[in-house]
Amino acid sequence: MSASILLAARGLAGSRSLANYRSRGGYRGLAKALAMEPAAVVAEVRASGLRGRGGAGFPAGVKWGFVPTDSPKARYLICNADESEPGTFKDRELILVDPHMVLEGIAIAAYAIGARTAYLYIRGEFVREAAILDEAIAEARGAGLLGRRVLGRDFDLEIHVHRGAGAYICGEETALIESLEGKRGLPRLKPPFPAVVGLFGCPTVVNNVETLACVPHIIVRGSAWFAAIGTQRSTGTKLFCVSGHVRRPGVYEEVMGISFRELIEERCGGIRGGRALKAFIPGGSSAPVLPAAKIDTPADFESVAAAGSMLGSGGVIVMDETVDMVWALENLLTFYAHESCGQCTPCREGSDWALDVVRRIRRGHGRPHDLETLRRIARYASQGMTICPLGDAFCGPIASFLEHFGQEFEAAIAGATAPPTLLPVLPLRSDRGLFDHGAGGA
Ligand SMILES: Cc1cc2nc3c(=O)[nH]c(=O)nc-3n(C[C@H](O)[C@H](O)[C@H](O)COP(=O)(O)O)c2cc1C
């Protein structure tokens, strides 16, 4: 049985209206929260075990607890609706089905951390979703659920929808904050973390849409109810966005810990055309790829990490036996090389360089040392070598594709021919690479 908490209203006519949301108990959580002390709301969310659904899985209540309560500065809440990770399309679904649930989650979180202004940062391409949110905000304002003295209580809140311009990096919380401040979206060094120094230099909490959508349910039904769903350290339900070669791609709400086999074979009807599964990426394109043999891995934060990948955003990309893995990696690297913000040399140069190498392997011009070059790039541009985790985001795929499907790359190199001499052969950036001379090189 699929779980149905966040997407319970899917298929209901008029689910986006305030009247419909209220008829389903909507905004009861906000009323209940406003009758509690802010610290008690933070404690309730912490006790629920709710972990961030934007990628890193950081406990939401713990993050809220980092906001200094003795600072005279304004505090801000940001709802991250950038949804920029390839293979991820769940936040959009939540906004389309139940925008008031997202607004209620924002309002409760803002109250808990002492924010009077919240921003909903949404990717520029989500034109319709931004309009839906603007409409819902106007409706909530009209009903006294936003604005001055929310529900007659001593709490004011304004929510502003801010449309981004479609850059992947602006989903990263500090780049998002820069973008919101009107600057180019370049990530900031952490620490200080946004909870202490964030938007306009003030304490700021950034949470994903799905994370915030869980909050009204936790407040209404209690942290113990939420903590009892899923596994001990991955509580609640999770929205999985399944794409690729399955019969029924889509967004599925499941209890944390469902196996990928159940998700792919039962919910999604198995692999299209009766073919066999070759590989799957469990948590959005930056999560390391897993081979078909890992299909029985439970889909929760710990189990996916133990299997060598990440639950990430829950974007499950399924590949059947016909997929050329050299092509698949080239496809991913094309994205990352394009989206690297350029601030850190290992990421800017490394992503382009890795793409050059994989591209030439796929075109039949691979060289014997290419795999070692790729492994070295993956080593030197990840694990803290860059300001933000975009370095890890393109290195994880490289390392895992080579680990599990290295023989496909080796075969492509073994069958390589020299580049045709009549075509102009431009020197590849990878021919003289920064890492060939760097510290630690072999
Ligand atoms: C390159 C990059 C892109 C990201 N894109 C998103 C995104 O589109 N949406 C999102 O919620 N988090 C994204 N994140 C994670 C955010 O930085 C941040 O951890 C998250 O919004 C916090 O919310 P949560 O704790 O509720 O998960 C991204 C991170 C990186 C490094």
Mean pLDDT reading:
94
Helix content: 40-55%
Instruction: Tally the helices.
Output: 16
Q: What number of domains?
A: 3
Number of strands: 9
Task: Name the hetero compounds present.
Answer: flavin mononucleotide
Looking at the structure, the CATH topology of the largest domain is Rossmann fold
CATH class of the largest domain: Alpha Beta
Structural class: alpha/beta
Radius of gyration using CA atoms only = 23 Å
Order of helices and strands: HHHHEHHEHEHEHHEEHEEHEHHHH
CATH superfamily of the largest domain: NADH-ubiquinone oxidoreductase 51kDa subunit
What does this structure look like?
This protein folds into 3 domains: 18-227, Rossmann fold (3-Layer(aba) Sandwich), CATH 3.40.50.11540; 237-320, Roll (Ubiquitin-like (UB roll)); 325-435, de novo design (two linked rop proteins) (Up-down Bundle). The chain has helices spanning 18-23, 28-34, 38-48, 60-65, 91-97, 99-113, 127-142, 173-180, 209-221, 223-227, 260-267, 301-306, 325-339, 345-362, 370-380, 390-414; strands at residues 76-81, 117-122, 158-163, 204-208, 237-244, 250-255, 277-281, 290-291, 315-320. It has a 5-stranded mixed β-sheet, sandwiched between helices. It has a 4-stranded parallel β-sheet with strand order 3-2-1-4, with helices on both faces. The termini are far apart. With 442 residues, it is of the alpha/beta class. The protein has 16 helices and 9 strands. A hairpin with a 5-residue loop joins strand 5 (237-244) and strand 6. Helix 6 (99-113) crosses helix 9 (209-221) and helix 14 packs parallel to helix 16. The structure holds flavin mononucleotide. Flavin mononucleotide is lined by residues 52-56, 58, 80, 82-85, 168-169, 171-173, 206-208, 211, 388-390, 393.
